[in-house]
Amino acid sequence: MKVFVKTLKGTNFEIEVKPEDTVADVKKNIESVQGADVYPAGQQMLVYQGKVLKDDTTLDENKVSESSFFVVMLSKSKVSSGGPSTAPTAPPSQAPPASSLPSNVTQPSITSQAPVPAAALPQSAAESSPAVVTSAL
Q1: pTM of whole model > 0.70?
Q2: Distances (CA, A) of 49 to 31, 53, 71, 105, 111
Q3: Where is the region Disordered (predicted)?
Q4: What is 2-74's CATH topology?
Q5: How far apart are CA 78 and CA 120, in angstroms?
Q6: Rounded to whole angstroms, how far apart are CA atoms 131 and 78?
Q7: H-helix or E-strand containing 13?
Q8: Could you tell me which of 38, 68, 67, 66 has the C-alpha nearest to residue 53?
């Protein structure tokens, strides 16, 4: 059966698939049609009827029918060596603005926003609870 694939770049194309094909098979099909440098199967996310499809499910399980359309998106590649080296540099860049406050400016205290317990209220305020009026019919 033929299905249509829409990209976030605004292009559409069609591919030939079988109901028993897995989502991983469809991703490989898209990779072969569009090129591994443009849509690598490992980075593709296929969306059908608003749901991201899991690689190990079949098109039949996802109720994909003839002339349906998918949206293909690419996830960012996961680079393990680049992640840790950039993480330590982020906190120091956020710390200077907090310490650059003038000495006469103080941070608001969280304890000053705590609710006042009922025992600390004046006697008249603690006793002035709303009255419930019932009428006999």
Answers
A1: no
A2: 21, 10, 9, 53, 49
A3: 78-137
A4: Ubiquitin-like (UB roll) (3.10.20)
A5: 56
A6: 63
A7: strand 12-16
A8: 68
H-type alpha helices, 40-99: 82-86, 90-99
- Round to the nearest angstrom and report the end-to-end CA distance of the chain: 73
Question: How is the chain split into domains, by residue range?
Answer: 2-74
Say if CB 116 and CB 125 are below 8 A apart: no
Half-sphere exposure of 102 (CA within 13 A, CB side): 2
Place of tokens 């605004």: 10
Strand-pair partners of 71: 6, 47
